[in-house]
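Running co-folding for 5-O-phosphono-beta-D-ribofuranosylamine.
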Amino acid sequence: MSLLAVGVLASGRGSNLQAIIDACERGDLQAEVKIVISDQQDAYALERAKKHGINAYFVDIKNYPDKNAYEARVVELLQQHDVQLVCLAGYMRLAGATLLKAFSMQIINIHPSLLPVFPGLHAPHQAVEYGVKIAGCTVHFVDAGMDTGPVILQTAVPVLDDDAGDTLAERILEQEHLIYPQAITLYAEGKLKVQGRRVKISYLKSTLGNS
Ligand code: GRF
């Protein structure tokens, strides 16, 4: 099977990027990270990419007249690397029209909550403050909203009595590093079928004996 060409957009430390790279290198994920792009010059994600011989680019939005022009450059780089799936990994911008049009239903994201609760920033902290007992993480397709696209995979993480936002975030992150490569595997194998808001996973279908 040929490897799925993945492009990663990241704004920060890039631990999810690392999990994806590691899964590819172990052979657990039939994909190859072809390019990493960051909107932040000092993003550690760029260093991680370079350490693995992956092309890494900083694209400074300030050099472009508007978001569409900035995204046109991002799309150009992704297309130059023949990217088939774009993975947002701690990318701190909403996908705009230019990116969404170029990679329609080919962009996924990971978020540290059981969406649709706690979208946006600091989701584990929101979970602790709200007092929920179960938190978690979600991989979803990206649409124009903030963490609103169709859900691919979710994992629950219990909230402990002595949790602070940071301790919960750490335990959620461990699960993120597992489900993000799993979701990419399902995509690479063509097992995801999007029907409206629902993402059907074909292995579940056959396991459960549904038609
Ligand atoms: C993760 O918690 C991810 O769910 C969220 O941003 C964080 C990025 O962490 N979207 P990292 O840069 O992958 O370490």
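Result summary
The pocket of 5-O-phosphono-beta-D-ribofuranosylamine is lined by residues 10, 12-16, 89-90, 110-112, 173, 176 (CB under 6 Å).
Residues 165-188 form the longest helix (24 residues).
Job closed.
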